[in-house]
Amino acid sequence: MDRRVRGSLSALLGVALVSLMMPMAALARTDAALERSSNAATAFAAVPIRNRATLAPLPKFTIRPFAISLVTIQTLVWADLPLNGQTLLSLKVAAGADADGIVYKLVDGRRVYSPGNLGNDGIRYLDGYVRTGDPAYLDRAVVRAKKLISLSRLSGGARYFPYMTDYPLEKLKAPWYSAYSQGFALSLFVRLYRVTGVQTWADRARETALSFRRLGRVTQPWVAYVLNGRLWLEEYPSATPTHVLNGFNFALFGLYDYERLTRDPAAKDLLRGGLRTIRSFVTTYRVPGGISYYDLVHRTRFVHYHLIHTWQLRALAKISGDSWYGSMAAAYWRDYH
Asked: What are the pLDDT digits (tens) for 217-228?
């Protein structure tokens, strides 16, 4: 999650934080919010949810270059999917939005859109549609998905969503790409297909999933690579990757959505490879009795990101069926509380 531009923190926290790639209020949730009641899992009967799609498989790994966790991936109900169940987004058009109601920033006289924000907001609007049956929510999700496609670039059959401003802190020059926003886009396309049955969304999901299969850093562009037998999904794929934890996990959620939709073997390898990396390194991010590290290079620490790490670990426990991630989430929670 980016640290450059002021965003609003969840009212549950009541403090300000910095973000370009995603509004803070979209992510910070309390322990109680994570433990949703069974009533929250009830979707409107008028909105059927599809569970499978048949797509051309991603290229298989002849020799898998990274370790994996030998877990049984779990199928979650809609309400339990990462990022679902949050406060409904407003249907009012925000100030400073374009003709489609999408917020942008003016940089050197040109409009610049955040792929991470587009994907996150699209996911939340789509969940609003499933929960309320109001087609206005679906319209807004589709508009954001189409905007992502209009901004995207294809390389080697994979679809990438560029950031069009330089990021000096990580020495990234525009256009640059992020596993963070690739993950949001992937989840949005998968879930749009599940809700609408429109094949276009499944096709765009496959193209986006392929961006994770094209391992860097020799292959360009790249958002995933292997280091010492571990798979890394990089929010900032720079010459010196910083291993941002929350960005890694949001990318992993996208791979989870795609693997469950398709049961693709390569996607399963990528998902389980990411789970193994987290299992190996999440204690390295931890500061017992304190706030966890945002990344492993700058080693900055923020309460807000710590809370995100905590609920992400709980989500990984549900996804993987491995209670170890839940025990780590509990440890992270105690560290702050």
From this structure: 988 999 999 999
Q: Are β-strands 110-112 and 17-18 bridged in parallel, bridged antiparallel, or unpaired? A: unpaired
In angstroms, the CA 223 to CA 162 distance is 11
Structure tokens given for 92: 């009012």
Closest CA to 235 of 227, 272, 225: 225
The CATH code of the domain that includes 330 is: 1.50.10
What burial class does residue 139 get, using C-beta atoms within 10 Å of its C-beta: 0-12 exposed, 13-18 middle, 19+ buried? Answer: middle
Residue 1 forms part of a structural domain:
no
What 8-state DSSP symbol labels residue 187? H
In a domain, 292, yes or no: yes
DSSP string, 91-119: -SPPTTB-TTS-B-EEETTEEE--HHHHH
Q: Write the single-letter amino acid at 10.
A: S
Least confidently predicted of 13-22, 161-170, 293-302 = 13-22
Residue 91's domain comprises: 6-336
What is the pLDDT confidence band of residue 103, given thresholds at 50, 70 and 90? very high
The answer to the question of residue 160 being in a domain is: yes
**Vertex 72, ends 66 and 76: CA angle to 5°?**
115
In a domain, 104, yes or no: yes
The answer to whether residues 7 and 24 touch, using CB atoms and an 8 Å cutoff, is yes
**Number of domains within the chain:** 1
Predicted pLDDT at 1: 53
Q: Is the pLDDT higher at 60 or at 18? A: 60
